[in-house]
Amino acid sequence: MKLLTGLVFCSLVLGVHSWFSFIGEAFGGARDMWRAYTDMREANYINADKYFHARGNYDAAQRGPGGAWAAKVISDAREDIQKLLGHGAEDSLADQAANEWGRSGKDPNHFRPDGLPEKY
User: Fold this and answer.
1) What pTM, to 2 d.p., does this model score?
2) Lower Cβ count inside 10 Å, N or C end of the chain?
């Protein structure tokens, strides 16, 4: 009985710990996405949006499952809003491809335009 109680207690503790970890990763991933967005606005560089999409998703996903989840939720919400506002479906599909590229761990520099300052 003591063994069973100990196993249940340990699984609860580990479960709570993993939820705290997930939530921390999600908040960190949301910060990564915000940083990529603000960098994109600051850079104001033509044809750089796909790079910033990929970079934000990449950075968020590197934090773990919570970061990848936050990146997907934020990316999907942004694209859904763009569709509601009547922005181009082709551009939205290209943005989502860049988002998925970054979330999958592929190098976001694949989308980096020539001449974008090294700061970004």
Assistant:
1) 0.84
2) N
